[in-house]
């Protein structure tokens, strides 16, 4: 290990320009990859937050009493599809109505306190469950009407599915492109040493002797560039969280319903980048050097 | 027992083009042999067979009675440590200095730092380069580069030293120095196989001369001489 490290330092010193340009290319690639993953994560977070706003509202007949509605709420809370239920009493409804229409005294005068119905506002874990729930609740005991913006929700479901798919495809493409850039950069470094590797073999070097320093250098380059880009991304994200630009919780990539603390997400991202750097450096250099080991 | 043996070796790169054609030759331990002939005669192919850069299309090449073509890849480094090679174009590591270029040959056999520190200056003094130990190849003359190439080939004390046109790219004075070094190495017991078409050197040293033309051995004489293609034809 000591010898490999010593060789690495000597090589870097003698080929400063090549080493620096490779490190810059790889760091920028990891940085762009990290930024792209951040954009995907934030867009998924925004999408989830919009999904959470979608709800159905069950309005009850006046003769259906508050206790009965609360009993119904308790029953509905056992349903696994439902994420959140909020009871809005007649008084609450009137308060909300007056708050919204405070600038329209004529309208307010025409509405009495008891005219607005009590309701339950229901949010589901999955948008697609809203429709089914509406048909189950319609015509139920005490139910006056179930309100649900079907067209808007349906359009939103198709858009959000498209965003999921496009995001996932772009993410995979971008990961493949970034990985290719890193592997090609490592290959270029090794190709520039092609004639030297040939000489080493001619003086009786074993495969291990030829391979070890190059794989060590490739792995270290991968690690260093991933580390530098991770530090930059962490600083950016930390700035975003502390200034309130970024939410305290973000969606966990494409896993539906999964959310992570932003700090934990940053740690996961750093680990993913570091692991990618080390793996790409190792695999990329091992594959590239193989060409020169054929006798 | 011959150290090196070529048994009916033919090398055909393309159908109809034979770089070597049914070559049979034995070289004993400690011999100094000149392999002569015009460019394209097959001298380099002969040498490549010996270090298994190429394998025969027919026949076999044996080193210490072991068929080289049958060696597994893992045993090739061992073979190449026993056969040191000096190339016409030196094949030096330009990013390493003189000391490191020689040290590489020892590092590949896992020699200790102490051994390297002792052996490298000794080998370099043998070829007269000890004072340029920390220079880089680009700071050396053609003759010095070739001497460095010889030093590297000698570092792990090979049984055979193969020199492929070692004087082809250097001036007459350096040529004399290189040949003198090769003679000295041979006197210490190392077999020398030198490909050359330099008549002056071949005729001056009066060693065994094997003449190859169009892939075939035309003559093999101890204390032989080399007159070039036209003179050889005239003299039969």
Automatic annotation (TrEMBL), chain A:
Transmembrane segments: 20-40, 163-190, 263-289
UniProtKB keywords: Cell cycle, Cell division, Cell membrane, Membrane, Transmembrane, Transmembrane helix
Record domain FtsX extracellular: where: 55-146
InterPro entries, sorted: ABC3_permease_C (IPR003838), FtsX (IPR004513), FtsX_ECD (IPR040690)
Record's keyword annotation contains Cell membrane: yes
Family designation: Belongs to the ABC-4 integral membrane protein family. FtsX subfamily.
The name this protein goes by in its record: Cell division protein FtsX
Automatic annotation (TrEMBL), chain B:
Gene3D superfamilies: P-loop containing nucleotide triphosphate hydrolases
Entry GO MF terms: ATP binding; ATP hydrolysis activity; transmembrane transporter activity
Keyword Iron (UniProt): no
SUPFAM superfamilies found in the cross-reference section: P-loop containing nucleoside triphosphate hydrolases (SSF52540)
SMART domains for the chain: AAA
Lipid bilayer topology: Peripheral membrane protein
Entry keyword set: ATP-binding, Cell cycle, Cell division, Cell membrane, Membrane, Nucleotide-binding
A Pfam cross-reference name: ABC_tran
NADP in keyword set: no
Record-annotated membrane-spanning stretches: none
Main location: membrane
Residue ranges annotated for the ABC transporter domain, each copy included: 4-234
PROSITE patterns reported in the protein's UniProt record: ABC_TRANSPORTER_1, ABC_TRANSPORTER_2
Localization: Cell membrane
One GO-annotated biological process of the protein: cell division
GO CC, any one term: plasma membrane
InterPro entries: AAA+_ATPase (IPR003593), ABC_transporter-like_ATP-bd (IPR003439), ABC_transporter-like_CS (IPR017871), ABC_transpr_LolD-like (IPR015854), Cell_div_FtsE (IPR005286), P-loop_NTPase (IPR027417)
Subunit-level organization: Homodimer. Forms a membrane-associated complex with FtsX.
Function: Part of the ABC transporter FtsEX involved in cellular division.
Family of the protein in this entry: Belongs to the ABC transporter superfamily.
Name of protein: Cell division ATP-binding protein FtsE
Native source organism of the sequence: candidate division WWE3 bacterium RIFCSPHIGHO2_02_FULL_38_14
Gene that this polypeptide is encoded by: ftsE
């Amino acid at each position: 290990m000591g010898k490999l490290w010593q060789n690495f330092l000597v090589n870097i010193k003698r080929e400063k320009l090549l080493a620096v340009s490779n490190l810059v290319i790889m760091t920028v690639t990891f940085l762009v990859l990290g930024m792209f993953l951040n954009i995907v994560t934030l867009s998924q977070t925004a999408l989830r937050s919009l999904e959470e706003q979608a709800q159905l509202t069950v309005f009850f007949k006046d003769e259906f009493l508050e206790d009965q509605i609360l009993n119904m709420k308790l029953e509905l809370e056992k349903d696994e599809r439902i994420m959140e239920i909020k009871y809005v009493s007649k008084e609450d409804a009137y308060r909300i109505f007056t708050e919204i229409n405070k600038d329209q005294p004529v309208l307010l005068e025409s509405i009495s306190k008891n005219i607005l119905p009590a309701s339950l506002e229901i949010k589901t874990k999955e948008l697609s469950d809203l429709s089914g729930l509406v048909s189950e609740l319609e015509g139920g005991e005490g139910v006056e009407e179930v309100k649900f913006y079907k067209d808007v929700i349906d359009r939103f479901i198709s858009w959000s599915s498209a965003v999921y798919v496009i995001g996932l495809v772009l993410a995979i493409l971008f990961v493949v492109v970034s990985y290719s850039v890193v592997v090609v950069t490592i290959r270029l470094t090794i190709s520039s040493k092609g004639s030297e590797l040939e000489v080493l073999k001619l003086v009786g070097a074993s495969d291990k002797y030829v391979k070890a320093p190059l794989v060590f250098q490739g792995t270290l380059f991968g690690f260093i560039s991933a580390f530098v880009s991770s530090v930059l991304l962490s600083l950016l994200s930390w700035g975003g969280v502390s200034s309130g630009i970024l939410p305290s919780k973000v969606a966990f990539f494409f896993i539906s319903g999964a959310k992570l603390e932003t700090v934990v997400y940053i740690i996961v991202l750093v680990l993913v980048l570091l692991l990618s750097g080390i793996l790409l450096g190792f695999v990329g250099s091992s594959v590239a050097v193989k060409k020169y080991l054929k006798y | 027992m011959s150290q090196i043996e070529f048994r009916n070796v033919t090398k055909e790169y393309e159908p109809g083009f034979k770089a070597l054609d049914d070559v049979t030759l034995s070289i004993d331990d400690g011999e100094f042999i000149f392999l002569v002939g015009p460019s394209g005669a097959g001298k380099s192919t002969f040498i490549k067979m010996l270090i298994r850069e190429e394998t025969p299309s027919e026949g076999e090449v044996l080193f210490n009675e072991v068929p080289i073509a049958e060696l597994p890849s893992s045993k090739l480094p061992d073979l190449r440590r026993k056969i040191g090679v000096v190339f016409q174009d030196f094949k030096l590591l330009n990013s390493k200095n003189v000391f490191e270029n020689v040290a590489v040959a020892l590092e590949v056999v896992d020699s200790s730092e102490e051994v390297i520190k002792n052996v490298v200056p000794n080998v370099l003094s043998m070829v007269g380069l000890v004072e340029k130990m920390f220079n880089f190849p680009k700071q050396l003359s053609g003759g010095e580069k070739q001497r460095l190439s010889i030093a590297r080939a000698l570092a792990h004390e090979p049984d055979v030293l193969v020199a492929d046109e070692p004087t082809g790219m250097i001036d007459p004075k350096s040529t004399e120095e290189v040949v003198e070094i090769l003679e000295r190495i041979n006197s210490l017991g190392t077999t020398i196989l030198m490909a050359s078409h330099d008549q002056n050197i071949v005729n001056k040293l009066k060693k065994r001369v094997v003449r190859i033309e169009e892939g075939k051995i035309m003559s093999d004489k101890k204390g032989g001489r080399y007159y070039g293609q036209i003179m050889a034809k005239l003299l039969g």
